[in-house]
């Protein structure tokens, strides 16, 4: 077998010139080009220009690497969390905390499918430290809701409702886009079927995607949830 062209071969790093941060950063780069499932130590080593044993020196198996990647993803998520101020009223919490936090969470996941997989799908790769950081974000949000007047039980129900709604919107949007569903594009959904027998939808398909994951759809759901939470708070007072 002929040897590879020396001019096209990837230049190898010098021994000892790589560290864990380089490896984790490279793993994200590879996973974004393929998938987390397709990420492998040999592929990563080739991408980084090192021998595969250099990877195994730091990470004995792929699960260890995924744990390290998850730690980085959790750190990015935790730094995204909105500042919580004790002086904020419930209206402030509504507008500037819950809305801002979960909108930013949706934007973060939509921008990075690898991060989304690590945080939403592969939760078994959470380390104890990563789990603690995630729970600390939840604690701060739920504690603020309690301070605003919700009971502890209702505060966690409020958090869970808006959190599950947001995660569901993220995953549903991604599933539709991976499937290249016709309903993500107005022109394509118009040609999907004969809409004449469906007068209500026929009046919408020419200007509104029916997938339910546009920014307008997401904001509508957040608004309705927040109105319901405010009603719950008033019911508690009475």
Distance between the termini: 83 Å
Poorly predicted regions: 1-10
Give the biggest beta sheet. none
Mean pLDDT: 87
Helical/strand content category: mainly alpha
**Radius of gyration, rounded?**
23 Å
Tally of contiguous helical segments = 11
Number of E strands: 0
Query: Which sequence of SSEs, written as H and E, runs from N to C?
Result: HHHHHHHHHHH
Shape, principal axes of CA atoms: flat
Helix content: 55-70%
Q: Strand-residue fraction?
A: under 5%
- Oligomer classification: single chain
Tell me about this structure:
By secondary structure, the protein is mostly helical. It is built from 11 helices and no strands. It has helices at 20-33, 41-48, 52-58, 62-80, 90-111, 113-121, 128-147, 152-178, 186-190, 199-202, 215-237. Helix 5 (90-111) packs across helix 6 (113-121) and helix 7 crosses helix 8. The longest helix is centred in the C-terminal third of the chain and has 27 residues, at 152-178. The N and C termini lie far apart (83 Å). The model is unreliable at 1-10 (pLDDT under 50).
Brief overview, please?
The longest helix has 27 residues. The protein has 238 residues and is mainly alpha-helical.
Would you spell out the secondary-structure blueprint of this structure?
Blueprint: H1 20-33, H2 41-48, H3 52-58, H4 62-80, H5 90-111, H6 113-121, H7 128-147, H8 152-178, H9 186-190, H10 199-202, H11 215-237
Helix pairs in contact: 1-2, 1-4, 2-3, 4-7, 5-6, 5-8, 7-8, 8-11
Task: List its salient traits.
11 helices, disordered N terminus, flat, 238 residues, mainly alpha
